[in-house]
Write a structure and sequence with these properties.
Layout lengths: L44 H7 L5 E2 L4 H10 L5 E6 L4 H15 L6 E6 L5 H5 L7 E6 L2 E6 L5 H17 L27 H11 L3 H14 L4 H16 L4 H10 L4 H13 L3 H14 L5 H15 L4 H14 L1
Parallel strand pairs: 1-3, 2-3
Antiparallel strand pairs: 2-4, 4-5
Helix pairs in contact: 1-8, 6-7, 7-8, 8-10, 8-12, 9-10, 10-11, 10-12, 11-12, 11-13
């Protein structure tokens, strides 16, 4: 990955010895990859529908929002612009990277941080001054650029971000996290965002999982076939469930209570958020196979909800559905 004015290691080695952002991580953040699996160049139906309804760029990300982005980087790579308002290079970097991120339809998310208002974030990222662009992959920062890039170099860089992310188990895809950007190149032909979608996106951008869940639920009440809302609701519920989890305590409870459906579902949530998708699925399939009683249906319903987060076209979902069918019948 080419970084102006800086020599960088290649491949997954970039993440070893990176800056420690644990002080920014929200409680319950799990390291590792994310639940999604759409490969670069492909798009799920939900993402295709959502692409014209919003943006994956959070224009004003304060430290609280950045905490949520660190957590989200376990699911998809997150681009962070350390922004200097009024600086021409900073403004150009914002336009350039924001359009590139929105062009990926949910395989990247971006947040713009005003480092003049929150200068402590420069130190957190190991930077002397802005502007600068970094990527967060599984909670770890990867420097990208501090000057505007030619179009072909930017395209190559986006591909390399996703390559590094895949090497570290991060290859998810998420619905829009913010309303469509006014005047954005990628949104020029966008259709109006449904009010409930916009409400959910704004709640996600603010890290308000409860409000996001409520908005997606209302959207599905209005249109049960809304695939973007289905995926958005499942993802928001997962983030809500895991936001305040004590990972060590949850895993200990799961080990000590193999017959407790709630304990096993909680560990599966952490596994999924941490990128251990097959482990999450297998845990619940095994529970279903061994528990033919009243706990079977809650476990099955929880597993189906996790399938929705990952996406029905993911081969891991398809393989797990076959195992689930065998466990049930």
């Amino acid at each position: 990955m080419s970084i102006p004015h800086a020599e960088q290691p290649s491949g997954a080695d970039r993440l070893r010895g990176a800056v420690d952002l644990s002080s920014l991580a929200a409680p319950g953040t799990a390291p590792g990859g994310g639940p999604g699996a759409s490969a670069p160049g492909t798009s799920s139906p939900a993402a295709a529908d959502a692409a014209s309804e919003g943006s994956w760029v959070i224009e004003q990300a304060d430290q609280q929002v950045l905490q949520q982005l660190v957590q989200l980087s376990a699911q998809v790579p997150v681009v962070v612009l350390l922004h200097v308002p009024g600086d021409e290079t900073s403004e150009q970097l914002h336009t350039q990277f924001a359009d590139a991120v929105d062009g990926q339809a949910g395989r990247l998310v971006m947040g713009r941080v005003d480092v003049t208002a929150e200068p402590q974030l420069l130190q957190a990222f190991g930077m002397q001054a802005g502007p600068a662009v970094l990527a967060l992959v599984a909670g770890q920062p990867v420097p990208l650029a501090n000057q505007v890039l030619p179009a072909d170099a930017l395209e190559k860089l986006v591909g390399e971000i996703q390559q590094v992310a895949r090497q570290n188990g991060v290859s998810g895809q998420v619905p829009p996290v913010a309303p469509a950007r006014a005047g954005a190149g990628q949104q020029a032909s966008a259709t109006p965002v449904p009010p409930l979608h916009r409400q959910a996106q704004e709640a996600l951008a603010a890290g308000d999982w409860e409000a996001a869940v409520g908005a997606w639920e209302k959207a599905l009440n209005d249109n049960p076939a809304d695939t973007a809302a289905q995926q958005g609701l499942a993802s928001a519920k997962l983030m809500r469930r895991t936001a305040d989890m004590d990972a060590a305590a949850v895993r200990q409870a799961g080990a000590e209570n193999p017959d407790d459906v709630a304990a096993q579902a909680a560990v599966a949530d952490l596994d999924l958020l941490g990128g251990h998708v097959e482990d999450a699925f297998q845990r619940l399939v095994r529970f279903i196979a061994l528990h033919p009683g009243e706990d079977r249906e809650p476990a099955r319903a929880h597993l189906v909800d996790l399938y929705t987060v990952v996406g029905s076209d993911d081969p891991r979902v398809q393989a797990s559905r076959r195992k689930l069918a065998s466990a049930l019948f």
